[in-house]
Amino acid sequence: MVNYFHPIEKDNSVHPTSGTSDTDSSPEQPANPAPLLQLLLFVDKRLSSREKTRHIRKSLQDLKAECDFELQVIDVGEQPDLAEHFKLVATPSLVKIHPEPRQTLAGSNLIAQLEHWWPRWKRSVEEYSIEQQSAPELAPALGDDPKPIYSVACAIELVQLADEVFRLKQEKEHLQEQLQFKDRIIAMLAHDLRNPLTAASLALETLESSQKVKEGQKSRLTPTLAAHLMKQARRQIRVVDRMITDILEAARGTNAQFHIEAKKIELGAICQDAILQFEDKFQAKSLNLATDIPTDLPLIYADPDRIKQVIVNLLDNASKYTPEQGTVNLSILHRTAYKVQVSICNSGPGIPQEDCASIFEDSFRLQRDKSKDGYGIGLSLCQGIIRAHYGQIWVDSVPDRGSCFHFTLPIQK
Q1: Contact at 8 Å (CB) between 385 and 326?
Q2: Quick one: 50 exposed, middle or buried, by C-beta within 10 A (0-12, 13-18, 19+)?
Q3: H or E segment at 69?
Q4: What is the SS3 assignment for 2?
Q5: Which of 80, 255, 280, 339 sits 20 to 30 Å CA-CA off 115?
Q6: What is the spatial distance between Cα 149 and Cα 198, in angstroms, rounded to a whole number?
Q7: How far is CA 313 from CA 265, 275, 309, 345, 383, in A?
Q8: Of 258, 274, 269, whose CA–CA distance to 312 is shortest?
Q9: Number of domains observed in the structure of the chain
Q10: Torsion angle of alpha carbons 173, 178, 180, 184, nearest 10°?
Q11: How large is the greatest C-alpha to C-alpha distance in the chain, in angstroms?
């Protein structure tokens, strides 16, 4: 907050705690012109500063008989931006803002500095007054120059505008990132959705055609094949649903609060169910899936859909990066009395050591994967889900020797 001290008569005193002058102006008296010498006094509320401020105000009052001035007192605690704008490093500080050039006095010997510079300030006022009188057509009437009075107001506006510009720049950058992310997601989604949708469509069309055989003709589909096609269609629809879920979760941002519906679940059954979704994908690349899922695992307390989402994401990455005829391992270890650990490993190219700490960041992708399909959001979602279950997730990797993703979950007690 800025307290303005208006011009006062030379025989009046200025009270340190006052925000206005003691001058009484009656309606019939014309307003006094604003003094040409404009000063700012920056103070704070510390007890040690109050005594210094009082002495400075007393010295200024003594000097007022030599040259009239207008003083504006600014509390740096209430206007820190102004202190930064005037590049102040200590309080109290006295700043001459008019006539230009601006000058700042500060330090323990501020009064001595003021007495030293006062004759020069007085002379600058006289020179400015002569300059104004010599060119009245180019300048406002003497004593009506608004520039000094508006200096602080302009400074406040400049500080506020600078803050607003900075905020708008940040918002612009954020919006541009969102637009770029959206465009990338739309392009990838359009590409990636085509495969499961085509597979589901073919399966359903085959089933439909088998129902349209002419009367008396035997269906070309056996019950076993029909059941397989129906299962295939359902599986591909689940893949599409998972992809859409991932996109929606990513749209909520990295700080999204996951909705967890925890209950007692068998982790082994969740893993087996997730593995079924990748049978065709693993067969297409001749991948070998090795599992180590103990039958005596304790129950865990978690959201089954969310945990399955994590396992599916990790298996999907493993199938994507494991070369043909490679190996994918899924194992569960009852580590302690309080948690179990799930590990999904692949024999792919691995992850550079310097990127292992960043691999779970939102939209992070390895340089080698920039041209490949994918969103860079799967591992970020996995981390959010596991942390929402009070677990941990991490990766161990050796370049050209594969990667192992691990996560832990609490045991139901």
Answers
A1: no
A2: middle
A3: strand 69-75
A4: strand
A5: 80
A6: 73
A7: 19, 11, 6, 13, 11
A8: 274
A9: 3
A10: 160
A11: 122
- pLDDT band (50, 70, 90) for residue 11: very low
CA–CA separation, 361 and 376 (whole Å) = 8
CB atoms within 10 A of CB 156: 16
d(CA 204, CA 237) in angstroms, rounded, equals 11
Is residue 118 located within the same domain as residue 184? no
Query: What is the sign of the dihedral through the CA atoms of 89, 95, 99 and 103?
Result: negative
Percent residues over pLDDT 70 in the chain: 72
Q: Answer yes or no: do 289 and 382 share one domain.
A: yes
Give the chain's radius of gyration (CA, Å): 38
Token representation of residue 114 = 């003021």
213 CB contacts (<8 Å, ≥6 apart)? 219, 220
Is residue 216 domain-resident?
A: no
Amino acid 52: pLDDT: 86
Torsion angles phi and psi, residue 353, rounded to 5 = -55, -35
CATH of the domain at 183: 1.10.287
SS3 of 312-377: the string is HHHHHHHHHHCCCCCEEEEEEECCCCCEEEEEEEECCCCCCHHHCCCCCCCCCCCHHHCCCCCCCC
* Residue found under tokens 């594969």: 402
CA 318 to chain centroid, in Å, comes to: 31
d(CA 200, CA 64): 91
Please tell me the number of Cα atoms within 13 Å of 284 on its side-chain side: 7
Neighbours of 205 (CB within 10 A): 12
pLDDT at position 25: 37
Place of tokens 């069309």: 205
Q: Same structural domain for residues 75 and 136?
A: yes
Find where tokens 């002569």 sit. Answer: 130
Identify the weakest region by mean pLDDT among 5-14, 150-159, 353-362: 5-14
- Bridge-based pairing of strands 69-75 and 37-43 is parallel
Q: Does 215 map to a domain?
A: no
